[in-house]
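Note to self: user wants both folds in one dump. Writing first protein now.
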Amino acid sequence: MVWQNAALGMAGVIGAGVAVFHGILIQRLMVAPFEAVAMADRRFSGTTRRLVAPLLHFSTVVWFLGGIALVFAANVLDRDARLAISLLVGGTYLFGAVFNFWATHGRHPGWMLMAAAVALIAFGTIASGV
């Protein structure tokens, strides 16, 4: 069971690492330019200006927390809890990988990293007999 736990933990490290990098890029390339435009253009309401950054960072937060949950599950939790976390986090990572691939026509490394994490989650879950 050591290799299966290592696979889940590695998937968590990949997911959390992708999340941190993603968050930095989202802030620099999307949030900051939007805020500059939104402050100059009064057609954007205050509500819209307040919601854009959290909505753009939502996937970052989900991926990061999912990564932490996988590392925690691999090291602390029992088999049933690992299965539940693997299914939940694996589903969100799979969603990210598929739609990143679709939206960028495969020209973005994010889908590959998320797909690698999904594969590690599957290995760690299936190989442990869950």
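First done. Writing the second protein, which came from a different request thread.
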Amino acid sequence: MNMRRFAAGTVALLVIFATVVLPVASQPSPFIIDAIAPLTGPQAFTGAAISETLRVFETWTNEHGGLRGQPIHFDIRDDQSNPAI
């Protein structure tokens, strides 16, 4: 009976050690890719297609392991259909 208590106590201590002391594996931060598209202005229809394509590619890539194990994220900015911006 004492051996069972010792084994149960040892298992309990190992579980406590594993949950409290060992570090938790965290999700890596996403690799951010900057993108510029005409989201407003006369070329907004083109920008909407570009933006949607990038979002679909981002989702697909992240579902398949990301970029060398790191998720990606497209940071899409609006150039207002103005080449000067």
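Dump finished. Worth passing along: The mean pLDDT is 84.
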